[in-house]
Fold these 4 entries.
Entry 1:
Amino acid sequence: VKREPVELSDREREAVKKLIERIMASEDPEEVQGAIFQTAREHGIKPKEFFKKLYKILLGRDHGPRLGPYIWDYGKEKVVNILRRSLGQEI
């Protein structure tokens, strides 16, 4: 997957940081899916917009498969590494 850098607002960056924590703590795909919605709402971001940013970061496009199962199947650690890179953090 060709991933271009994705511009994130401060609010979105904080939400991605929190989501990383929640992904690592999750125990199943549905928990990951719920964590995305919860994190978006807690940071004042419309879930649809947050999903769009996550798709851009992870897949290089505006839409894609259901993210909870995708993250679970692809591997939590791999996804977290991609998200950290999107924040400019080293793995």
Entry 2:
Amino acid sequence: MRVLIVHYHLKPGGVTTVIRRQFSSLESSGFDVSILVGEPPEGEPGFPYTLEPALAYDQESQSSQDGPSGHSAREGGADDLRIGAIVGAVQANLGPPADDAIIHVHNPTIQKNSACLPALSVLAARGYSLVFHVHDLAEDWRPDVYCLGDYPQPATWVCINQRDVRNLKAAGAGEVHFLPNAAFSGKAGSGGPLAGSFGTGGPDAGDATGVRPEGDLILYPVRGIRRKNLGEAVLLSLYLPAGLALGITLPPNSPRDLPYYNGWKAAAGAFHAPIRFELGLSADFDELYRQARAVVSTSVKEGFGLSFLEPLSRGKVVLGRRLSAVVDDFEESGLRFPGLYQHITVPEGFFDPDTFLYRVKQVVMAAAGVYGLEGVNLAEAIALSLTTNPDFGRLDETAQAEAISRIAADTRARDEFIAANPFLATWWEPRGGPVTSDALSPWSEDSYGARLASLYQTVKKAGGGSPPDKAALLALYLNPEGFHGVGI
């Protein structure tokens, strides 16, 4: 079977990691696999690829977009030459349409390239089998990459979490399948504890290098984009005991995220917060993991949740914010995350509610306009849900900074915040037992390869299906509980 993997780029990140493991799994299973991208990697990716510049991000996507005023739905206007170039590159790599030929496209509905979806429509009309591998959905509060046009059909939709599977099916997509990412390379199932796993293991628990759980670093291995909720990481750092620090590995790449990131760097300094930034620019990633006592995540939105699994595969406990949309999938397969919290309650008086709710309504109205919706009722419903003791993770950066400023400056405010959230007093303490390789085997590269092969057999037999109804899909995601001030 011939498989062509298609994506906009091979920049470091989650999708590139998935592509690397997908290529490895398919090649070792005897598939004829090739890769087509619009932008080259920064270094040697470890696998062959073909470059087609017409697949690269639109220039508009690379410009600074400071909030909703920069949101745009790039419908139409796609250069016919670029559409033709993409179609031609696919045909040159894959050959003519055939039962054993599949185009596997990563994140095609995140419209970073206005020619991509029209090109896929052309290819579908010519009889090619399409697999749409959905890591994120623009309907999930991402108006800046939303496409107003119809999605290509027929196609097979593949999701990395069960929530998106359910929503796509509910919105009418005809062929939808669950394909969780591979969290680590290698074979599944030796049965023993992974090196470095610890929980209540006693004073000698530690990783294979001898680093102990009582190390001084709580690592947040992340690129600091907005939805990673860095304000909450700053907040958590204020409750660390003396001698511990929280460390963030990398700055964001995108101009849109950079001002928020730099704002938190400055605020953390002003608050004298024990948090370090950009550790990954001067230290090896593996070495940072070896130094870490535990790993934390404060993200408010994830497609798969690798940040919850990779630490376990490296023998580290995971602390921080629980995201039900992804953690539920892991727990249904037997994993447990006792170090996660669901909510951080913000008591009354820690930020200016009137100006915050005004900003929320403005953001929601702007987003609704991009989606082609009337947003008054949605804006009012979201504002109402944030009126009394909101979750810290749903605030925007301004309100978060106001709350942190009070906590940093006033011990009484600090104590009041702990009274509302008692777990904060010891949030940094590792909780949980050792994790075996058997427990992680559902997310091994072997398991991933087997799922991929099964998926392609299904595509070969069933073909694709109808796309989701876009209005129905929007209604499933645009709800009050899905809104986060730092996640849009």
Entry 3:
Amino acid sequence: MKKILLLGALFAVNLWAVNDIEVKNALVKQTPPHAKNSAIFLTIFNNTDKDIALIGVKSDISEASELHT
């Protein structure tokens, strides 16, 4: 569970580091012990007049990451 929380925190921090991108309502689902997956929910705001595309997601602590929009 700690790894998943860390993943969520690092993901959100990386997005906050980008100019004009805002992350709100980040939430990590708590999983039962020994669960093999979890989910992170968040809302990303583009505060510019330019189009910005989120084209993927990756993690250094999991074998697979998926992006559902």
Entry 4:
Amino acid sequence: MKSILKILFAPLIWIIHSCSPIGEPVKEQLSNNHYYNRNNTDIIYSSGGNWFGLGKKAMNVDMDTFEVLNGLFAKDKNNLYCYHNKVSHPKLDLESFYAKGETAVERDKMNNIGFDKNHVYVTVSKRQGDIYTTGITILEDADPKTFKKIDYHGWAKDHERYYYRNALIHVDYDSFTFIDEFFSKDKNHVYWHTFSNFVKTDANPETFVSAEKSKYIAIDDKALYVTNYSKDQKEPITIPYTSKDSIKVYDDMYFKVGRTVYYVGKPILEADIETFELLEFSYAKDKNHVFYNGKKIEGADPNSFEHDEGARCKDKNGYFLSGEAYEFKEL
């Protein structure tokens, strides 16, 4: 079957290739976006070489001095380019501008970061109506010699500063450490971070740890700190407790403190603490109710409610999918 498909599609592939406006990649080991045109008289920017689906842009470069730096950045004697756009900055030293990354993974991580002898630059996008423009801005006080990205969650550092999502943060550098995706700490404070938020909390850095069964919950000697991973959340949800014995974490989302059950930090007021139990696929139940994503399912029978198949559940009256009753007929 595969051989037949190859034969059938071969003419189409040949036609597309023969009509391609792009030639060979300029420097394939650094970028799969920069290509010579068919006459080798200019450079074409085409994301992944997919000009047919994603389009292409002629860059109008100086061919004698053009140099690919990574998948986004390139330069010639006259201009710095990001994507296909000419970009500049009042403090830019074009001659010394370069990109970092000895391996493909490192280059991908550092793709939107550029350097000259004096500064570290990061790409910025601005929207005017339906049009996006690209530029560069300087990362505050960053040292180009030692600056590097740490991970894909927006963290970077140089020899004496940390940065989160391209913003300098003020922490104790020597004692600063990551706890998990949402929390970090130094000898003085615990910090919460998600999306573009970076918040100093009142948590105790000496006792602060991640909860064992949930990446969204952390705990110190006086409270739980919960991330609901909503863009509207501006600080962690703080839930005080009196005894660690009163805390039970069921999974990423469900937990209890004292006599109250919570779903990502929101109390489930109808839940019976004595009979509450976790089910699969974000379901839970007690002697009175069935819950999905922390919300009571009206009409569901807790005594007969059980997992059926895949993400489907059932009770004596019918079937449920994603917390909603629906009609299912077995073949």
